[in-house]
Amino acid sequence: MFYRRLFLLNLILIFTACNSPDTPMLGKLSIGIVSYGESDRFIEPYSKLIEYLGARLKMIIELEPIYNERRALTLIKQSKLSIVFAPPGLAAIAIAEAQYIPVLPLEGVKKSRSVIVVKLESPIQDLTELAGKVIALGQPGSATGYYLPIYNLYGLTLAEVRFAPTPKQVLEWIASEEVVAGALSLEELQRYRLDFSQTRFRILYIDSHKIPSGSILIGPTVERNLQQEIHKALESASSSMAASVGYIPNAKAPDYDYLIDVVQKVRPIAERIQEKPAPLYSLPFEL
User: Fold this and answer.
1) In the structure, what pLDDT confidence band is assigned to residue 51 with cuts at 50, 70 and 90?
2) What are 90-116's pLDDT values in tens digits?
């Protein structure tokens, strides 16, 4: 946390030093970036973008690292983030419930898939066999780890649901047999399964719907003209600068209509899950 504060201070000092003392500052913008429990050093590639946006918009730009979707969802609903680099599930909720505007797509897999995974040797062969079992889901705000799994498990009575702070934690719980199955994206499974040399995983279920990539979103508290200026600035950034932080300039933002529909359908169940008080993060219930 100390490194993050120091880094932000350095960015502000860099921006201020690059501008004339006579140049008026027009305000401040905050950029939220979701990263699963990584070191604060993951924000370093954003330094050039922050300096560029600050000079272009004549504003101080601050970075807000967010380490899971739950925290990001809180900040979005409170309209505390001016700009968000949002994964698809978070983007869908921000658009539908908090009036955020998608402007540009993020890089990465354009069409993701949600999977439910078990250990290779697990006797479970069908989703219905998860009834009465303990499973792991991701955080609220995750399309592939939370909303789609709830949708696909509808009608089952589970013994317990645990909420993993990261996709890798889902696999760790499966490997240690704390849960019998867990949900994450196909891409996350392929990325993190390599960290488990003693455990092999098997896909029990793969969702048929392909989920679009994430987006850069602009918040509703940002004045309309400034929204347009931010959009233009992001589009005009160099390709190397855009690539360094993972977005595609001059491209259309994805369509989240299907995902928004899924979120709305599972909302009653999702709200029941969240009523369980901490620190248990689990409950027997019928999906």
Assistant:
1) very high
2) 999 999 999 999 999 998 756 789 999
Give the Cα separation of 258 and 32 in Å (integer): 24
Q: Alpha-carbon distance 13 to 8, whole Å?
A: 9
Question: Rounded to whole angstroms, how far apart are CA atoms 59 and 16?
Answer: 10
Q: How far is CA 30 from the centre of its chain?
A: 17
Q: Does residue 277 have a cis bond before it (omega within 30 degrees)?
A: no
Spatial distance between the Cα atoms of 237 and 234, rounded to a whole number of angstroms: 5
Cα 166 from chain centre: 10
Helices 47-57, 2-17: crossing angle, 10 deg rounding = 40
Please give the share of the chain, as a percent, with pLDDT higher than 90: 61
- In tens, the pLDDT along 54-83 reads 999 999 999 888 877 788 889 998 989 999
Query: Do 228 and 97 touch, CB atoms closer than 8 A?
Result: no
Residue 117 parent element (H or E): strand 114-119
Task: Note the pTM of the prediction, 2 decimals.
Answer: 0.78
The strand pair at 114-119 and 201-206 is best described as: antiparallel
Strands across the sheet containing 134-137: 160-163, 134-137, 181-185, 114-119, 201-206
